């Protein structure tokens, strides 16, 4: 008889826990919506907002100009490279033809005075001059690219120095923003936590306890998820510290309750 009566009680207790969890989930969803659209919450700060604009604007303009100049110079180098390759191939082909021709030619008493030899030699020298000119142009463009790269590096260093100078005011403003956000969330969650504590101490025997328990779960969630993470720098310590205290209190209460049965 006793065992038969225990089953409905367990099912009822389980159903009441389901009611508590469902009620808490809806409260958590509504709370998250309210907190997400919290009026007066400051927008997230960016480091660039604290960089001196009178110094940053010329650097950005110079950076953009250097990037455009680099692209144009690189295109010029690509064209110069094609010219150099063509000149080198033309000279190499002409040199191979000349070497093959001179090897099979029957020289006169003085090959150095042969008019055709001299003509082909001058043609070969002209091609070599063209190749050297193309190579010199390529080297000149490489030098320009190196100068541009050095100017870009100097520009980057100057921008980094500006950001380092702005880092202090940025961190200070961000800390103030975190305190403001925490204060707004504290104003919402602290009353919930107080009411939840009062319910736990005074209303555990109420017939509406499953609904009240859902509110308690919601308040605990609001504290650990919506509030504590916004504590500046030491939020994790508060979360785990409060969690330990709550666990100890709940454990002691559970042990004492079990001893009564």
3D architecture notes:
The chain is 84% helix and 0% strand. Helix 1 runs parallel beside helix 4. The N terminus is likely disordered.
Q: Which overall shape is indicated by the principal axes computed on the Cα atoms?
A: elongated
Number of strands: 0
Detail the poorly predicted runs.
1-5
The largest sheet is: none
Strand and helix map with partners:
Elements: H1 2-36, H2 53-104, H3 115-202, H4 209-227, H5 235-259
Please summarize what this structure is.
The protein has 261 residues and is an all-alpha fold. It has helices at 2-36, 53-104, 115-202, 209-227, 235-259.
Fill in the keyword field for this structure.
261 residues; mainly alpha; disordered N terminus
């Amino acid at each position: 008889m006793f065992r038969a009566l225990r089953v409905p009680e367990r099912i009822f207790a389980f159903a009441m826990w389901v009611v508590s969890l469902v009620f808490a989930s809806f409260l958590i969803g509504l709370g998250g919506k309210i907190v997400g659209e919290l009026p007066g919450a400051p927008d997230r700060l960016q480091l660039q907002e604290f960089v001196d604009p009178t110094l940053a604007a010329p650097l950005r303009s110079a950076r953009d100009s250097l990037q455009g100049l680099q692209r144009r110079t690189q295109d010029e180098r690509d064209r110069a490279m094609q010219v150099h390759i063509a000149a080198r191939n033309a000279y190499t082909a002409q040199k191979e033809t000349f070497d093959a021709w001179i090897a099979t030619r029957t020289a006169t008493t003085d090959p150095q005075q042969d008019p055709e030899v001299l003509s082909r030699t001058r043609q070969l020298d002209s091609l070599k001059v063209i190749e050297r000119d193309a190579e010199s142009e390529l080297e000149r463009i490489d030098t320009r690219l190196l100068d541009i790269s050095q100017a870009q590096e100097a520009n980057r260093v100057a921008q980094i120095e500006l950001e380092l100078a702005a880092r202090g005011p940025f961190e200070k403003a961000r800390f103030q923003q975190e305190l403001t956000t925490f204060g707004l969330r504290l104003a919402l969650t602290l009353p919930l936590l107080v009411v939840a504590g009062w319910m736990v101490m005074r209303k555990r025997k109420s017939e509406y306890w499953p609904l009240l328990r859902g509110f308690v779960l919601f308040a605990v969630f609001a504290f650990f998820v919506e509030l504590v993470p916004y504590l500046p720098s030491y939020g994790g310590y508060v979360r785990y510290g409060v969690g330990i205290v709550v666990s100890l209190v709940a454990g002691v209460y559970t042990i004492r309750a079990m001893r009564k049965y």
